[in-house]
Amino acid sequence: MRLCADVGGSFVDIAAFDDAGAIGWRRKVPTPVDDWAAFVAVFADVLAVVACERVSIATAGLVDPVSGIVTSANIRCIDGRRLADELARVLAVPVRVVNDADAFVLAEAARGVAMGHERVFGIILGTGVGGGLVERGRIVGGAGGIGGEWGHGQVVHDSPIAPGTNPVFACGCGLKGCLDTIGSARGLERLHRFLHGIAADSFAIAGDAAAGKRRAVATVDYWCDLVGGPLAMLLHAVSATIVPVGGGLANAPALIAALDARVRANLLIPAAIPVVVPGRLGDDAGLIGALVAGG
Ligand SMILES: [Zn+2]
């Protein structure tokens, strides 16, 4: 058996996989964000009753592939720790830790919508914008584990002749106009408010756009420009052939279909079938990605 966990800011989804890769046992517990001892106990308690040879964890936050140090703003008790090494020491089993966006892409490449593709660039459109690049079933981690993270970097600039007319929003990373400020669910809502002065939920905006309502159509059209342009450029740069989408907005199929159409319109090599597609594994993606990453 292998113990796998998907550690998010609110919950730890934890499961034991059998040797055939099927889930044999699973539960969800609140994440002890500030309590290291309680965090360790989440795993130790399971290992005390379910015999597992190794542990694999997908977690929110960056994982430096060289030092193993995790940087996590939301889960403070693991921030700055060599998480895999420290857990392995107390749990007395090998531990592998990967970023959760990378785990999502690994899972979709191994068992999901991206099966059979050599190079997969997966994206997360949720509370923020994340991503991961997987080549031949392996994560391209990059310096500091930042490989595939396309959310930060300016995509919206202020107009030099009419300041304030473009949707340039401050980003949590310290920059302005990042893709993260536009491409996330909150970003879509922010853009709608900026364009029309209307506060609406991201799913309502996506639904209204699909129904042809004028203002929502304009918002989604602009959103597709701002997200789809950089995405098409990235696909050219890394030669990925499919983009599985995870995060909350993956549950808005019409929005993802609109983004796919915009991306394909920007590709130099035409794609006859959808490229940007919702992931297939849903809530299991993090766990399966952790399993795959654990080897
Ligand atoms: Zn940023």
For the biggest sheet, the summary is:
5 strands, mixed
Number of domains: 2
Strand and helix order: EEEHEEEHEHEEEHHHHEHEH
Strand order across the biggest sheet?
3-2-1-4-7
What spatial form do the alpha-carbon principal axes imply? globular
**Radius of gyration, rounded?**
20 Å
Features:
single chain; about 300 residues; alpha/beta; Nucleotidyltransferase, domain 5; five-stranded mixed sheet; 9 helices; 12 strands; about 35% helix; binds zinc ion
Topology:
Elements: E1 2-7, E2 11-17, E3 23-30, H1 36-49, E4 54-59, E5 62-63, E6 70-71, H2 83-91, E7 95-99, H3 100-111, E8 119-125, E9 129-135, E10 138-139, H4 180-183, H5 185-196, H6 202-210, H7 214-238, E11 243-246, H8 253-265, E12 276-278, H9 285-293
Parallel strand pairs: 1-4, 4-7, 8-11, 11-12
Antiparallel strand pairs: 1-2, 2-3, 5-6, 8-9, 9-10
The site of zinc ion (ZN) has 6 residues, from loops.
Descriptive account of the structure:
The protein is of the alpha/beta class and 295 residues long. The chain has two domains: 2-102 and 284-293, Nucleotidyltransferase, domain 5 (2-Layer Sandwich), CATH 3.30.420.40; 116-278, Nucleotidyltransferase, domain 5 (2-Layer Sandwich). It contains nine helices and twelve strands. The strands form three sheets. Strands 3-2-1-4-7 form a five-stranded mixed β-sheet, with helices on both faces. The chain has a five-stranded mixed β-sheet with strand order 10-9-8-11-12. Strands 5-6 form a two-stranded antiparallel sheet. Strand 11, helix 8 (253-265) and strand 12 form a beta-alpha-beta unit. Helix 5 (185-196) packs across helix 7 and helix 6 (202-210) crosses helix 7. Bound molecules: zinc ion. Zinc ion is lined by residues 152, 171, 173, 175, 178, 180. Zinc ion (ZN) is lined by residues 152, 171, 173, 175, 178, 180.
